[in-house]
Amino acid sequence: MKCKALYFNVFFLLLLAAGRIGAQDVKIPTDTTQLFSIETRDGNIFLGYIRQIETDYLMLETEKFGDLKINKKEIQKIRTVGKNQIVEGEYWDDNPHSTRYFFGPNGYGLKKGEGYYQNTWILFNQVSYGISDNFSLGVGMIPLFLFAGTATPIWITPKLSIPLKKDAINLGVGGLFAVVLGEESGSFGLAYGQMTFGPRDRNVNLGLGYGYAGDSWASTPTVSLSGIYRTGRKFALITENYLLDAGDENIALLSFGGRFIGRWIAVDAALVFPTGTGELIGIPWLGLTVPFGKARD
User: What would the pLDDT profile of 248-293 be if each residue is shown by its tens digit?
Assistant: First the structure.
């Protein structure tokens, strides 16, 4: 029961922090040479250069609409626009779900104040939050107690992200540490390292991890090879693959699918193919992610 209380306390603190961040006033940058994306409360997004700042409004110079006078009270978010976000003359929003694939993480991390809620097949729930630009923490639960079950898995997922070369090579070190409430010896998890090559939207990731159950650690590592390729503003192709030691033989989990990248939500859909079953059967994967907290700088 103490573990369950700890989980809910951490979960509540993460949501409270997200609410406080969302309530902060939007800071108006003063750099006149930087291209900005300004999102208003009615959902419109304008790209341009801030040319004038007054008490109640700012003047934005845009290529499409000319000079726009925008009331400060109507501004929801202001983001810097990098060169890699203008693709063939079209603006691509930052991918707020770029720190993971379908399930597994990569070497990139959440920035301080960023977070997301992830749900897969209703039962799998996780909230992740950026404590700093290089360290994030996630807490998760499969609430089997809602279905008259006594065994309920809960876990934490700390991750340290180290940029070795900006937007090119990132190292991630972390783990998934879980207990099963209702069982005396229900602890299990994985400690891992991830190396990601390429920018957030188009990269390949090589991972190595060691799992454990109770006091026993695996003698051989779990190897992962994953990747993402963003094809447009709203869609990305994803593959996530694992090679596992199952004792007498190695088992591979292969997956391929895509992600719809919306402004307020992302939806993942894929097929997972486990080997070693005698037949190649695709198991559907369906999940959604809702970002919260600060927008990316």
Answer: 777 899 999 999 998 788 999 999 999 876 677 889 999 999 998 8
* 3-state SS string for the chain: CHHHHHHHHHHHHHHHHHHHHHCCCCCCCCCCCCCEEEEECCCCEEEEEEEEECCCEEEEEECCCEEEEEEHHHEEEEEECCHHHEECCEECCCCCCCCECCCCECCCCCCCCEEEEEEECCCEEEEEEECCCCEEEEEEECCHHHHCCCCEEEEEEEEEEEEEECCCEEEEEEEEEEEEECCCCCCEEEEEEEEEECCCCEEEEEEEEEEEECCEECCCCEEEEEEEEECCCCEEEEEEEEEEECCCCEEEEEEEEEEEECCCCEEEEEEEEECCCCCCCCEEEEEEEEEEECCCC
Amino acid 22: pLDDT = 45
Tokens standing for 103?
């399930």
Q: Which two tokens stand for residue 14?
A: 């993460």
Q: Which residues pair with 161 in a beta bridge?
A: 172
Q: Mean pLDDT across the stretch 132-154? A: 86
Taking CA atoms, 296 is separated from 69, 133, 160, in Å, by 24, 11, 18
- CATH 2.40.160.40, applies to 2-19+95-293: yes
Would you state the structure tokens that stand for residue 37, as one six-digit string? 């994306």
Q: Where are the domains of the chain?
A: 2-19+95-293, 36-80
CATH class of 36-80: mainly beta
Is the pTM above the cut of 0.90?
no
Q: Is pLDDT above 70 for 153? A: yes
Span 191-208, pLDDT tens digits? 999 999 999 999 999 999
What pLDDT sits at residue 235?
Answer: 94
* Distance, CA of 116 to CA of 157 (rounded, Å): 13
